[in-house]
Write a structure and sequence with these properties.
9% strand; 7 strands; alpha/beta; two-stranded antiparallel sheet; five-stranded mixed beta sheet
Length: 410
């Protein structure tokens, strides 16, 4: 048996091959291009790599062209956490020495000794992986949009409180196209107070508003012309220029989030699992796509529902040593899936009577809001695992049976 370890870098990679006794049989230093990939594949083939019996590979990343080349066929690729690899390095030497060829050798030895304890990259379909790319990008764009909006809000608090008061009347606040158009037309409160009804109506129309334009323009005029504190004129103009520069970033972030959301809504419904995922209360196209992005469509990825719950961070973890024992929430988890679970449980409370009853029961038992939501997410993601394994849609009566049915079953 041959095992391969690859210490990857931006431009070059170190490769080490060992046998089942731990003896180094080959090592190479390859470049990150087509030539380097061909050298790697030829090296693997020289030591017995074939379509029927591929050599397993350990590497400290799950992305990139190198991983895509290695994942062709049935080869198992193990993405080893760098922190875990560092602990394995201490098993071979306590002097804290480190080198790239040595790290490749450590990765190969991880597979030789503990391959059964590590999980290979899932064999997801190309469509599922494409949905994962779009869903994660849309999630990142949403977070970036909110971060930029928070920066803009912090700046407006310094010199432009009337703009914040105008935005409070609309959903999504500063991310609304109407607010961005008004800020572009009047970057300072002094200029905002000089806007006429006609100019305000024109700005709302340019932002795409079609109804209630006159009433909204009148409200904005009253807000901008109210009594507000002002910075000195020169400082106010400088802050206005800073705001316009930040506004450009916010507009780009909003545009990126909207475009990626449209791409997700187009790709996700094409997946066979979309019908089952969308049948669950609280999951729409965006949240459903994020769930699929993190759990994939490889049915063998998780041994059971408990593995998926631990991966999502919804199930508690027990820490026991001697006479001390504690049950706490998980800190090592898939942060993206855990974030989706919070939004999913929050929406399910209002979309599902059974979920609301479950949440209220946990609250009555003394759970805080976050703990009750996490417990609801833990239950629902277990139900999702069952439905995906058996190809069934969500059934409210089965997922949350009434108390009378539970007593009868007992």
């Amino acid at each position: 048996m041959i095992y391969c370890g690859i210490d990857w870098a931006e431009k070059t990679h170190d490769v080490a091959l060992i046998d089942d006794t731990g003896q180094l049989v080959a090592k190479r230093h390859i470049t990150d291009d087509t030539t380097g990939y061909k050298i790697l594949l030829d090296l693997l083939a020289e030591y017995g790599d074939s379509a029927e019996n591929p050599i397993p590979v350990a590497i400290e990343t799950s992305r990139g062209l190198l991983v895509a080349v290695l994942r062709t066929g049935k080869r198992q690729v193990f993405a080893i956490n760098p922190m875990a690899a560092a602990r394995y390095r201490d098993r071979h030497s306590v002097s804290r020495k480190k080198s790239d060829p040595g790290d490749a050798l450590v990765l190969a030895n991880i597979l030789r000794t503990d391959m059964h304890t590590h999980r290979p990259l899932p064999q997801d379909s190309d469509l599922a992986r494409a949905v994962a790319v779009l869903a994660r990008a849309q999630q990142d764009a949403t977070w970036n949009r909110q971060q930029t909006a928070n920066q803009l809000r912090s700046l407006l608090r310094e010199y432009y409180p009337s703009a914040m008061a105008a935005a409070d009347g609309w959903r999504n606040g500063l991310c609304r196209p109407e607010v961005r158009e008004l800020l572009r037309a009047a970057p300072t409160p002094t200029r905002a107070a000089q806007l006429t009804r006609t100019q305000l109506q024109a700005a709302l129309k340019r932002a795409g508003r079609q109804r209630g334009i006159e009433a909204e323009a009148e409200r904005l005029r009253d807000v901008f012309r109210a009594e507000w504190a002002h910075q000195p004129p020169l400082v106010e103009d400088a802050l206005g220029k800073q705001m316009l520069a930040l506004l450009v970033q916010l507009e780009a972030a909003c545009s990126a989030a909207d475009q990626l959301a449209e791409a997700v809504e187009e790709a996700f419904p094409q997946h066979p699992d979309a019908e089952i995922i969308l049948s669950f209360p609280g999951l729409g196209l965006q949240l459903g796509a994020r769930v699929l992005a993190e759990i994939g469509d490889d049915r063998n990825r998780f041994a059971d529902a408990r593995g998926l719950k631990a991966y999502a961070g919804s199930s508690p973890v027990t820490r026991a040593s001697g006479k001390k024992s504690s049950i706490t929430r998980r800190w090592v988890k898939n942060d993206r899936l855990n974030h989706v679970g919070y939004l999913w449980a929050f929406s399910a409370i209002t979309a599902s009577p059974g979920a609301k009853t479950h949440y209220r029961r946990r609250r009555d038992q003394g759970d805080w809001h976050a703990a009750a939501q996490r417990n609801l997410f833990n239950r629902m993601i277990g139900q999702l695992y069952h439905c995906l394994q058996h190809g069934r849609r969500f059934d409210e009566a089965v997922a949350f049976p009434p108390a009378s049915a539970l007593v009868a079953a007992s």
